[in-house]
Amino acid sequence: MRHRPHRPLLSILIVFLAVGWTGCSDGASRSPKTIAQNASVVEDGLGRKITISKPVKRIVSLAPGATEIIFAAGGLEFLVGVTTADDFPDAVKELPSFSALPLNFESVIGLKPDLIFASSQVNNPDDAHIFEQVGIPVYFLRSNSLEQILSGIRSVGSILSTAEVAEATADALAIRIAVLESVVVGLTHKPKVLTLLSSTDLYSFGARSYVHDLIRLGGGESITAQLDQDAVILNEEFIISERPDVIIGTFSAETKTSDFLINHRQWTNVPAILNNRIFAIESNLILRPGPRNVDAAEAILSFLQPDLLLVLKSDSN
Amino acid sequence: MKKPNTALLLSIVAVLPVIALAVSIGTTNVSLGTVVRVLVEPFFSLSDAVVQTDRDIVMGVRLPRVLSAFFIGAGLSIIGVAMQALVRNPLADPFILGISGGASAGASLFYLGFLPPVLAVWLSMPLAAFGGALLSITLVYLIARGEDGLSVSRLLLAGVAMASLMAAITSFITYMSTDANQLRAILFWLLGSLAQNTWDTLPLIAIASLLGFAITMIISGQMDALLLGEEPAESLGVRVEIIKKVLVVLAAFVTGVMVANSGIIGFVGLIIPHMARSFAGISHRYVVPLSFVGGGIFLVLADLVARTLLPGQDLPVGIVTAITGVPFFLILLRKAHYKFS
After folding, report:
1. Is A80 helix (H, G, I), strand (E, B) or coil?
2. Could you tell me the pTM of the whole model?
3. Do residue A265 and residue B181 have CB atoms under 8 angstroms apart?
4. Which residues of chain B does A232 touch, with a Cβ-Cβ cutoff of 8 Å?
5. Cis bond upstream, residue A64 (ω within 30)
6. CATH assignment of B3-334?
7. What are the residue ranges spanned by the domains of chain B?
8. What is the ipTM of this complex?
9. Is-contact A138 A116, C-beta < 8 A?
10. Distance CA A285, CA A297 (A)
């Protein structure tokens, strides 16, 4: 190793600077001493180790799904900024907002957060480096399954010291999921479901998406679950040969079978088109990984197995 | 001495087997026997009926797509030949002179609702693309034309600049659009795709492609003369200015139709004419038909890869043409020794 004679000098300089800095600040914000005392190292959804100094008072969310998870974990009061795409819960519309794609780094840093929450589905892990260079840790929430979404809620609760709310919300969601599991477990006929983003193109969800969980809990079988990519563009042949019984998507509620046939003329014999089994679902329920995904699963159950939904409702009464 | 006739004959003989191969392979397993039965079904009465799903896949999806791929590849390749003759530069292809860029800017303006539909959607998009292509290349042409006639170097420079401008316009429109559905559609289209081609879109593509072939065949002698330079061509009795105008309008029309139906598929117009010349020499009487057939075969095969590489999914074919075509082109460039002009 190279010998560095000036190293002791550098250390002294750093100590001086640090002490000087503490002296200048009012002592309430990040002083090196308090960081050392209250810092805890946690592992985020991507397995990155990040150091968080508690208590966390100001947080920013870089994705609407992350915002909903923070809300579910009881952390709404700590939010000081969200993206321009955020609209749930209503209260976040009043918060300062910044563009997410491309990410406006300056605005986010200007909000002076103690911690930033990001979504592995939307945000680029490299973005974290820029924030970490100015001393703001970034916690990535992973959401490839409903289970990961629930554990995300619990983790956020523990970081923000709102564990009580977070655990209660996550438990309530877990119960609703368990109820859905129990009603669909005995199903002998599970319709084959194709999930699409629109009636014109063929963007869908591949392996490692929580969307397949939602279809399964709704009493169906997702035909794209085996495709080995996250965001897939399907080919026409695949749909004709897979013959989905139902198409669920984030197209408008007025979409009819004839709208599909304009762009996909060969689907005349696809069962979903033949039997007019096309269901629109509110895009924010299904496209944002978060607590409202359970609402989406229940909505899907009402499309696919309306009889079971009645059972579900009479049970809960 | 090359044997242009042999190469041409071989490539023509290869067309049917290649199309048959492409129609019989896909995401779904349809046996060769079934494919043949589906194809001959309309002409003969068959004892055992074909499953409707197989009929939908072969007749409804694969055949129109494969035929479109053939005519689009052939058309792009022909325009490559025409542009290379026009600017007497082997670098030229439909991308140069801003033709493709103008077409895509026109088409994306239409797609995002800035231009009104005319008659029918399937006609409006090609019209918008043709309009964009024609506007773009006309501007380039006017800028490049001086007192001394059309300057090739000015044409190339203005073309490259115009291509950048048109690409920026397309990017700006796309970037400013807030409708996620339109954005996804346009992204797929910008990367080049044959997935949207059906029996409806095929006639226009075939007509544009065959028209390009017929006209370049008719003026193949004049195009040969152009390679000698404009003054020598003029002295041989070629009406250079008229030929140049014909080539420019033809390129705008054919490229507009192709871009409207397949998005941006690069390198076909560059690679195929060079391959054709390495087999057949530089005489356009052979280069034009060989490029036509070769371009068609190349795009049919590239699209076959695009729709079968990932199970159940479509890959943008523009990626495949570049990845497979460019290394091949570089090897050819290293080996082939023909004089262009």
Report:
1. strand
2. 0.78
3. no
4. 310, 312-313
5. no
6. 1.10.3470.10
7. 3-334
8. 0.70
9. yes
10. 9
